[in-house]
Specification:
This protein has helices at 10-21, 33-52, 58-66, 74-78, 92-105, 121-125, 159-171, 187-203, 209-220, 226-233, 235-249, 258-265; strands spanning 2-6, 25-29, 68-71, 83-86, 111-114, 134-139, 148-153, 175-180, 278-279, 288-289. It is an alpha/beta fold.
Length: 295
């Protein structure tokens, strides 16, 4: 089966990796060839890690890489795809344009899936002539490790397409969970208010960054505290999802904390910018509190 993945960033290259490892022929598509080259480097590095842990053989690594081909042309990349997974930036206008183009270029029978973490599948599907074939496949980061795929049915998504995507997710070794199309779906409707409340607790002086994360790690058995997790996700992404929740549900409890808004405006986006609630240095795994939040 041929699969096309649009976007070669963290989520896109992870999705491409998992499909290729499980026997699918994958077209990885991005407008930037250097970005595609970096993605292949990341996939190779992650496969090497699996080989080192003896969870994958060297032959399997070579076979997996052989199933991947890169494209800078959307039309060429999706030409033979039975499934397209869009994993571009979490921007509504961009996604709508991609799906308009997919409707034109992808085979008529192809399933069109979005990895969006919060944007309405129904709204995305409405710009196509095949809304029954549009669905959400929300993978978790890091894709090769995390087991969940949140499968989101749009208003018009067919039973057959949903069943097909659930089965494809199982073939990847994932656990698919079907949810309906409402703002934030399930994962982010629950996660983002928790992260926002952690930021509000910091903003109001209830406790410091490390104290808040320690309470949640040791008291609630979370592997990562909410503020560190926000850095990992990207504070801009957290803000965008909270705004989708706030706008879509109209409930003030989803209003993003002013501290989060200010940090994003200041370019403190978390791990990807080098600073959020913590500071990040390339090659270092030490967790260092950002200077602003030191006592």
């Amino acid at each position: 089966m041929n699969v096309a993945v649009i976007g070669s960033g963290t989520m896109g290259n992870g999705i491409a990796h998992v499909f290729a490892q499980h026997g699918f022929t994958v077209a990885l598509i991005d407008i930037s060839q250097p970005a595609l080259d970096r993605a292949l480097g990341t996939i190779t590095k992650n496969l090497d890690r699996q080989v080192a842990k003896a969870t994958l053989s060297e032959d399997d690594k070579t076979t997996t890489l052989g199933r991947l081909k890169t494209y800078t042309s959307l039309e060429a990349g999706v030409a033979g795809a039975a499934l397209v997974v869009e994993a571009a930036t979490e921007n509504l206008d961009l996604k709508l344009q991609i799906f308009r183009d997919l409707d034109q270029y992808a085979p008529a029978e192809a399933i069109l899936a979005s990895n969006t973490s919060s944007i309405s599948i129904t709204k995305i599907a409405a710009v196509t002539k095949r809304p029954q074939q549009v669905i959400g496949m929300h993978f978790m980061n890091p894709v090769p490790v995390m087991k969940l795929v949140e499968v989101i049915r749009g208003y018009a998504t067919s039973d057959a397409v949903t069943a097909n995507v659930m089965e494809l997710s199982r073939q990847l070794g994932k656990t698919p969970t079907e949810v309906n199309d409402y703002p934030g779906f399930v994962a982010n409707r629950i996660l983002m208010p928790m992260i926002n409340e952690a930021i509000i607790s910091l903003f109001e002086g209830v406790a410091g960054v490390e104290e808040i994360d320690t309470v949640m790690k040791l008291g609630m058995a979370h592997p990562m505290g909410p503020l560190q997790l926000a850095d990992f996700i990207g504070l801009d992404v957290c803000l965008a999802i909270l705004r989708v929740l706030h706008d879509g549900l109209g409930n003030p409890k989803y209003a993003p904390c002013p501290l989060l808004v200010n940090m994003v405006m200041a370019g403190r986006l978390g791990a990807k910018s080098g600073e959020g609630f913590y500071q990040y240095t390339a090659g270092s795994k030490e967790l260092v509190l950002a200077e602003r939040f030191r006592k």
